[in-house]
């Protein structure tokens, strides 16, 4: 008695399904990349070193795991470096977005406020927003300020920052108010 659930795909059908899978995962990776950039730029205090570690590890792991599929699909045009950077970007973005999402939405929601001296003030140029640099937990952090004009920022000496510890123990910025 044969297996009635066995599927036989032709080489062309297999290539088409792999292409669709790659395009779908690539699209999800792009969406996650923009989510990560927005969150890291506005709300989450994560260092660049941590971001690069997540991207590098995800790129390595998925390059190794998907080596056979990629080699078969790419055939003669297989370039390990290109494939690695594709995985680095796509899966790094997906995993970092998952990390940020769980850090924010699975947190204990206990907020606290820190009042700190404003170390630096930067005026917006073009489409960027005004920002201030402050010291939070011994780390110099740049925070985008959208609710205040640069004149208001320039008059301020201190900032009251509402923070929350995330699920993965990374700080989340809830709100920033300027104090003269």
Architecture overview:
By secondary structure, this protein is α+β, with helices and mostly antiparallel strands. It folds into 2 domains: 11-105, no CATH class; 111-179. It is built from 5 helices and 5 strands. The chain has helices at 11-42, 48-65, 67-74, 80-105, 150-155; strands at 111-122, 130-136, 139-145, 158-165, 171-179. It has a 5-stranded antiparallel beta sheet with strand order 3-2-1-4-5. The longest helix is centred in the first third of the chain and has 32 residues, at 11-42. The termini are far apart. The model has no long low-confidence stretch (mean pLDDT 84).
Annotation keywords:
180 residues; single chain; five-stranded antiparallel beta sheet; alpha+beta
Total domain count: 2
Distance between the termini: 82 Å
Strands ordered across the widest β-sheet: 3-2-1-4-5
Structural class: alpha+beta
Q: Could you report the average pLDDT, rounded to the nearest whole number? A: 84
Strand % is: 15-25%
Number of helices: 5
- Radius of gyration (CA) equals 22 Å
- Low-pLDDT parts are none
H/E series, N to C? Answer: HHHHEEEHEE
Described by strand count, sense and barrel closure, the largest sheet is: 5 strands, antiparallel
Q: Can you count the beta strands?
A: 5
Rough shape?
elongated
Helical content class = 40-55%
């Amino acid at each position: 008695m044969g297996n009635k659930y066995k599927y036989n795909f032709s080489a062309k059908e297999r290539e088409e399904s792999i292409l669709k899978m790659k395009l779908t995962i690539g699209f999800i990776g792009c969406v996650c990349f923009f989510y990560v950039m927005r969150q890291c730029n506005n709300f989450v205090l994560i260092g660049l070193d941590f971001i690069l570690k997540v991207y590098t590890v995800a790129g390595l792991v998925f390059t190794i795991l998907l080596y056979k599929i990629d080699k078969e699909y790419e055939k003669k045009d297989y370039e390990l470096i290109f494939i690695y950077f594709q995985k680095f970007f796509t899966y790094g973005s997906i995993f970092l977005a998952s990390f940020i999402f769980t850090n924010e939405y699975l947190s204990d929601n206990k907020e606290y406020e820190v009042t700190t001296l404003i170390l630096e003030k930067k005026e917006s140029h073009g489409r960027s927003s005004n920002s201030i640099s402050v010291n939070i937990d011994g780390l110099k952090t740049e925070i985008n300020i959208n609710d205040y004009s640069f004149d208001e920022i320039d008059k301020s000496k201190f900032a009251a920052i509402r923070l929350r510890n995330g699920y993965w123990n990374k700080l989340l910025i809830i709100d920033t108010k300027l104090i003269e």
